[in-house]
Specification:
The protein has 216 residues and is mainly alpha-helical. The chain has one domain. 77% of the residues lie in helices and 4% in strands. The protein contains ten helices and two strands. It has a two-stranded antiparallel ribbon with strand order 1-2.
Length: 216
Amino acid sequence: MFVTKYFLIGKVSIASSWVALIFSFILAYSVVRWKYGKSSADLLSDAIFYFIIVWKLSVVLTDFKTVIQFPLSIIYFHGGTTGVLLGIIAAAVKVFWEIKRKQLTNPQMMGLLLGTVWILSMYQVFIVLVNEGPVLIRFMTGIVFSVFGLVILLFIKQFENLPYQLMMLMVVLHLFMSALQPAGLIQTPMFVAISLGIVLAMLVYFQEKNDVEAMH
């Protein structure tokens, strides 16, 4: 279990997990735009936007009493694991709407998959760099996810016909690394990786179904 640190920005204390999310979002957007262009990066950024908004506002559902008593708490808190799930669903609905509204290209969908891999990988790298925990586990986690992100970036073209295998590889890697950590498998990053793997597999399926229908 890594011990969360806080960054003091002005008079506001921000958890390292929030900083890690921003860091990973920016890096993911950058590599997707470089590899697949603006339209693919824009699809990823739209999904990220919907995730953040729902994730932050979900505190109204998970801790309504506190929000009513202290309205500004909505700025500093979020809905936890429940909020993460709701955020993922919101992002998935946004992408699904784009699939139904217009035909997404293969580069756009692959950009979304690449961006997801990088968000999850770079989040883990940042967390182990700034938080406290067993040195060996932190080192292994940082190296494994850094190498994984780089390898997927360099060989993403080879996965364009293997999107399901890419998502499965991402989930298996998170399972393996979570099993090595003191907290075990039951932790939010593992939950997020599995949820995203399932959601993205469904979105790829709907995209492929749309492609087939468009050919008839």
